[in-house]
Write the structure tokens for this entry.
Amino acid sequence: MAALLTGTAVLIITACGNNDGFNLAESDEADVRFVTLFSPMEKTNPDAENVARSACDKTIVLAEEKLGVSVDYVTYTAENYQDRTYDDVALDRARNNMDDIYLLNPDVIKALGEEGLLMDLSGLACAENLRDVVKTANTINGKLVAIPQEVVAYGLFINKDMFDQYQLELPETPEDFLECCRVFKENGIETPVGANRWWLETFVLALAYADLYNGGNTEAEIAALNSGESKYSDYMRPGFEFLQEMIDRGYIDAEKALVSEAIEGEGADFLAGKTPIVMAYWGAANTNTAYGNPDFNMLVIGFPSSRGQMPVMPMTGFGVGAAAEHAEDAMDIMDVILSDEALQVYAETNKVISPSKNVEVECIPALKPLNDRIQENVYVLGANANMNLEQWGNTCLIVRKLLGGATVDECMAEFDRLQEETLAK
């Protein structure tokens, strides 16, 4: 699986070793207690301030001080691993028991959970306070295998000033969205939607599963998909046809999107007011390494769907290796950094949605439209371990086939092939 949430995880956690509060050099080696944590580099510019880095560091320091255990970071950067994605490396390290704790993307959580390589975290005290959406997304074969420090929500980042300039209402449905793009295009906006090679699946997932997750029949519909009674391709087709129409009309530059990294590919044009719409995750609105300080009125809304603006929520998480060398200390660390006390610190610092139902913080005004929908329990899960066919990663890879010139029918045939492989297991 490709590194499908690397753009998110890259802004979540530190790249540098963290020895705050515990000096390894001055400690007797026999008395040293430590755990290793594998995580991605948190930013492409090492001099940029990163709020998420400080938020996570605060929780790590809290755990180190409470437990007397040092957390040593092992980090991924693209230049060190070249063509190997974060997910590739995380899978390899976890399968070879190289670390104690791993920060994982949803496709890797599913893969390692199904292989039995992650510990069950449901017995931790912190697990009692988790939102149901977290448990649903990261429970595999009855085991809660990963817990995040924030609930990642994706939405459309809108330059509201440009919408006001052309007297456009914020889009609710796919038809609304296409009409907005038409107006922008006819008024000289070359590419109304800035896209990258990772996140266009958010449109597809919103269109595919708006009814499944919000129609009151979720369990039965997922059971039908898992049994083969229903086809994933039937759910996915409207989203792929929608993307193809945007490509055909020139609302998305498919060639550029296919080679663009998240935010780096489309961020400059959005911030410069050349592109009115991009897609990104909640935390990107809070940090200056992404879209946290635009020179215009920005709003974050849900993706167009049959049920209106629809947030898409994949689920990252920290997991502990099933055969971790320092398993007991790793589990203790998890219980502290994911406690309500630590998550309150994290959420207040980073202004994000907490995985704990007991922790609430006021979001910035730009995020209010997206947050309102989430608080109404209106959303689509971008990753759900209860679905036998992994969603976030597979959808992203097949969207990239569309960007590369594959037809919608060819993309649907790929979903059918994957579903048949899953049923055969």
Q: What stands out?
A: The longest helix spans residues 51-67. Residues 1-30, 42-52 have pLDDT under 50 and may be disordered.
